[in-house]
Each structure stands twice: as structure tokens, then as C-alpha cells.
Design goal:
Oligomer: single chain
Shape: elongated
Strand order of the largest sheet: 4-3-2-1-7-6-5
Structural class: alpha+beta
Helix content: 25-40%
Order of helices and strands: HEEEEEHHEEH
């Protein structure tokens, strides 16, 4: 077998390996998309579903983390469910309405970076789009869950969604 024959054979093997890798990548992406879409579905019986991001209040999560969480408004509870971006660290949380002692919307706290990116116009960035829920959990421990509204894209639209909520 000559050099060119070996070269053609190795190219054929490389082409076959590349096709197999591409097919596997496509399948993984399809599965990821299906899982992502399934996690974005509202809970059965929910009136509406908002997307929020975590700020504080879950003992096992030390600090605020990025990623969307589904806030489902149900007939008897608020149901917080992780999405594809938060499923590895955010637990499912159900807060029955009769366990809530206070619920309020607060102004968001902006970071220094956000202030500079916003041109220093921080009063316009400090909209009321943080949801604070104080409740008593199943072990009779008082908890405060803080989230920031993501539904609405802009800060002003997020604040409008909080008023709707």
C-alpha cells in the first residue's frame, strides 16, 4: 500500500470519526434543549410563571448566584423550580400561602459595575424588582427568601412585572 492509499484511508477514518462526533453533539444539544424546555414549563395548575434569580435565603446557598428560577403562582402556594441554569444548585421550594408572614417588593441594589455601565444614573436603575417572601418552613423555622425578577427583560419592565405579581 502506497503513501497516497494510506493517506486516503486515514482521511476516510478521520471523516467518519468527525461525523460520529458531530452526530453525538447534535443529539446532546437536542436532549439539552428538551430538558431546558421541560424545566421552563409552569407547574400544573399554576396561574402564571415568572422567572426570577436568586439573591438570598436558602441556607445551603451561601451567596447570590446567576441563573433563572421559575416562580409559579399556584392556587395554594408559590412553587420555586430550578431551570437548566440552576438545576445543579437550587432546590425545589414550595411556600404555602398560609406559611407566609410578609411579602413585599423592594428596590434592587445595584453594583458599582452596573452604576458605571448605566452612566451613573443609578436612581433609574434602582427599580422595585426584588421580591421578598418571609415565611415559616416545615420545621417551624422563620425564613426570608429574596429573589430578583427576570421576566420583563429591562429593569423598568421587571419592576412592572413585580407590580403585576
Amino acid at each position: 500500500m502506497g503513501f497516497m492509499d494510506k493517506f486516503k484511508e486515514s482521511m476516510g477514518n478521520a471523516k467518519e470519526s468527525m461525523k460520529k462526533a458531530m452526530d453525538e453533539a447534535k443529539e446532546n444539544m437536542r436532549e439539552h434543549k428538551e430538558e431546558s424546555n421541560a424545566l421552563k414549563q409552569p407547574l400544573e395548575g399554576a396561574y402564571i410563571r415568572y422567572e426570577v434569580t436568586y439573591i438570598a435565603g436558602v441556607e445551603s446557598i451561601a451567596k447570590a448566584k446567576a441563573g433563572a428560577i421559575g416562580l409559579n403562582v399556584c392556587p395554594d402556594k408559590f412553587g420555586f423550580r430550578p431551570t437548566i441554569t440552576t438545576k445543579d444548585w437550587f432546590p425545589e421550594i414550595d411556600i404555602p400561602y398560609d406559611s407566609i408572614t410578609d411579602i413585599r417588593i423592594e428596590k434592587r441594589t445595584i453594583s458599582t459595575a452596573e452604576m458605571f455601565l448605566g452612566g451613573g444614573n443609578d436612581p433609574n436603575q434602582q427599580q422595585e424588582n426584588n421580591i421578598v417572601i418571609e415565611y415559616t418552613d416545615e420545621e417551624n423555622v422563620k425564613r426570608t427568601l429574596r429573589t430578583e425578577m427576570l421576566t420583563g427583560t429591562t429593569i423598568f419592565n421587571q419592576a412592572a412585572k413585580c407590580r403585576e405579581f
